[in-house]
Design brief:
Helix content: 25-40%
Distance between the termini: 38 Å
Largest sheet: 6 strands, parallel
Structural class: alpha/beta
Number of domains: 1
Bound molecules: NADPH dihydro-nicotinamide-adenine-dinucleotide phosphate
Order of helices and strands: EHEEEHEHEHEEHEEEHEEHEHH
């Protein structure tokens, strides 16, 4: 089986390189043109035409798109680029997947919802993004579904990985430097490890190839919920328990209104994962287990 992986160096893309490797031949591309066994191929999502050309030449059975314009605040000003990468590239992939009868796997976000209420969002709930990033991600979802191609779309939240920067690493750095940290306490969600996303993708990919009726949109996040504030406190507690010397004395809860950003953030990022767990017979671990694992790697324990 030939699998085209786009966005190979992102948090999720990196983990997918590992998780997909046992399923078939993975042709993994980043935004640059790469020399591959199939010649020079472009993985630039800002150029949907180059992407079409890559897919036509490669003829993969599966396309996994881990690439996206993910700079949520910058998307408010770079609207056209965010739209091209998150919406038009998804459309190009979907249309080419349909021509090949290939399966397209794509990732989206809880930011398609407006963040009201305290109930975990279901796949069938009404969408209403509060920022431009969410709007472009929603459009990507809709273009994929409208194309009629076989697809899996995983909406997830608060993604982290041990590679690259993430919230937990930032909190660790600040906790070494400062005595007080102010952290938002009224946004609730579940930190989702790129490892979990990649592993679930591999399982769902295999099952969906056998049973195409499993295709569709799924919410994917670990079990449990937490605020950014309690997440920061957890990171600090684990680090201290591992013997880290930290300067921080107070982790103060603040409101979203106290931390203005160019893009609005939804308060309620909870995702209901029942559909995913039932469809693929999966158990989703609690968020603490993945975060602890990542911290052990980061702290070199
Ligand atoms: P990252 O930002 O870590 O990775 C995104 C990747 O996309 C990067 O490797 C980036 O390349 C690549 N990319 C950006 N623009 C282009 C382009 N024009 N052409 C090719 N590649 C491009 O994101 P994640 O791994 O965290 O996100 C994976 C998916 O999950 C995305 O669909 C995202 O929307 C979704 N998601 C992420 C959340 C999060 O908290 N991060 C939350 C919810 C959903 P480069 O490194 O060169 O910039």
């Amino acid at each position: 089986m030939k699998i085209l992986l786009l966005g190979k160096n992102g948090q999720v893309g990196w983990e997918l390189q590992r998780a997909l490797a046992v399923l078939g031949e993975v042709i993994a591309l980043d935004r640059h043109t790469s020399q591959t066994a199939y010649g020079e191929l472009s993985g630039d999502l800002s150029s949907p035409d180059s992407l079409r050309d890559t897919i036509r030449r490669l003829q993969p059975q599966v396309i996994v798109n881990a690439g996206a314009y993910t700079a949520v605040d910058k998307a408010e000003t770079e609207q056209e680029l965010a739209h091209r990468v998150n919406a038009l590239a998804s459309q190009a992939m979907a249309e080419e997947a349909l021509r090949l009868d290939a399966l397209l796997i794509h990732y989206s976000t809880d930011y398609v919802f407006d963040g009201t209420g305290t109930t975990a969002w279901k796949e069938t709930d009404a969408v209403s993004p509060v920022n431009h990033y969410g709007t472009t991600k929603l459009e990507g979802e809709r273009l994929i579904a409208a194309s009629g191609c076989k697809h899996l779309i995983f909406r997830t939240s608060w993604v982290y990985a041990s590679r690259g920067n993430n919230f937990a690493k930032t909190m660790l750095r600040l906790a070494r430097e400062r005595t007080t940290l102010n952290v938002i306490a009224d946004q609730i969600g579940a930190p989702t490890g790129a490892e979990l996303l990649a592993d679930v993708t591999a399982v769902a990919l295999q099952q969906t190839l056998k049973q195409p009726e499993l295709g569709g949109i799924y919410h994917l996040a670990p079990a449990g919920e937490v605020s950014w504030h309690a997440y920061a406190q957890y990171v600090i507690d684990v680090a201290r328990a591992q013997g880290e010397t930290l300067a921080v004395e107070t982790v103060a809860p603040i409101g979203t209104v106290d931390y203005p950003t160019p893009a609005r953030r939804p308060l309620n990022s909870r995702l209901n994962t029942e559909k995913l767990r039932e469809a693929f017979s999966l158990h989703l671990p609690n968020w603490q287990s993945g975060v602890t694992r990542m911290l052990m790697e980061v702290l070199n324990k």
